[in-house]
Amino acid sequence: MLERLNSESLPRLPADVEKPAYDRSRLTPGIVHLGLGAFHRAHQAVMTDLAIEASGDMSWGILGVSLRSRATRDALTPQDGLYTLALREGGVDGQPREQLRVVGSVLRVMVAEEDPNAVLERIAYPQTRIVSLTVTEKGYSHEPATGYLRWDDPDILHDIENPQRPRSTIGILVYGLALRRERGLPPVTLLSCDNLLGNGDMLRSLVLAFALRVDVALTAWIDTYCTFPNSMVDRIVPGTDDGDRARIATRLGVQDAWPVVGEPYLNWVIEDKFAAGRPAWETQGGATFVRNAEPYERLKLRMVNGPHSTLAYLGTLLGHRTISASAQTPALRDFVDAMMRLEIAPTLKGIPASGLEEYHHRFLARITNPALPHPSSQVAMDGSQKVPQRLLETLRDRLRTGDDINRLTLAVAAWLHYLRGEDELGARYAIEDPLAARLAKLLSRAEVAARASAPSQAAHRRAMVLAAFKPVFGDLGKKPDFVAALASHLENLREHGVMAAVKAAT
Ligand code: CS2
Question: Per the confidence metrics, is the pTM higher than 0.90?
């Protein structure tokens, strides 16, 4: 049995494993991070680790919070918060190359569900200056189509009634900030790093909406003093599996219960508006600070996440379990390539064509990385929360200008077709989505409507019912061009299959 990675085994790691070159015992917590998943541990936590190392500023340790799951806390506590980041890529010889760094910035991990009050206390800790978030799209309790707070969300309803024991992200933030204000402490920065357009602005309006129900003076305090920078983060980080654990343990010579694995590529763009300082994240080329991050967020959501989701849905339907398998299927690759070039790139005004072209090709190379098999299911999950900002916003822009939406609509149809839970080989898969139950009802309503229609009208009727699902589609269900295209792609997928549908649309 191998020894565990921890403060004691740290000095004995092999020389080719990077590790913090600072004295961790002097590190104090300045950041509370909500959602300590692999994504955060592969970017913000490592950039903080490098910034502490480069600047010698020891006041930016991270206190990590998992909202519900105990797994990360249980894995990292015996390791004194230490874990390994493995950056993998295919070498020129075809052999994967892997660079390891043990990250030292996480001081402690807590589970909000076990002790919500302890998390509020930490937000209201005098040394806390940033509260950052990677809680995924569904963690914001917003309606995907509009970005408004969902007052019917059971967690939000619970949190209005239970200020001492909040369980939603928004509730935790508002009650934590209330405590700070009560104690006369300075404001903090709330930094969202999730894949949502204008993620900081959206977080701000959700927090203010909830705060208004609690206390008007608190709302004004947050609005006046706290800041909510928008940010864009780009790094592919598949979930860790046991093969990763075993391989990394062999390299380290000690056991790391939860390393994270990602691609070497990293792009982090943040608006430089921090209420109480920030780590020197720009050190070692990690983060870029800008006045307005929205164009970068839009570029990434449309040109990276949109095609990523498209490949996940089309690929899953063909039985591909990884994104790289889909990206290596010529028909799918050609389709996504055409969709990016002809329908997505033209909506990104003001970016030079050569820059877009390079970005486009880099994305296709990144998802083909043979050293980083990325399960399609991870990208496909939570589609109701992802499809609006990844595909529908682009589609809306094109409808507004009267441009072709054929390929984008096939991508949306692929999502709806995927929701039936069965691939073309007859294998069943689970639909993971916070709206799964409502989506299942929607699908059967659409079938009933189609069956009740004349055969020539069935496809159109089905598409009408599906596109009228407002939480995702907003007003798109009222756009005849969209509904007609959706009807024809859905029919093609049902009758002729993915390959034929994709070839017809490329
Ligand atoms: C992916 C993203 O899981 C998903 O939905 O599309 O996590 C993607 O890998 C990252 O946004 C890349 O930066």
Answer: yes
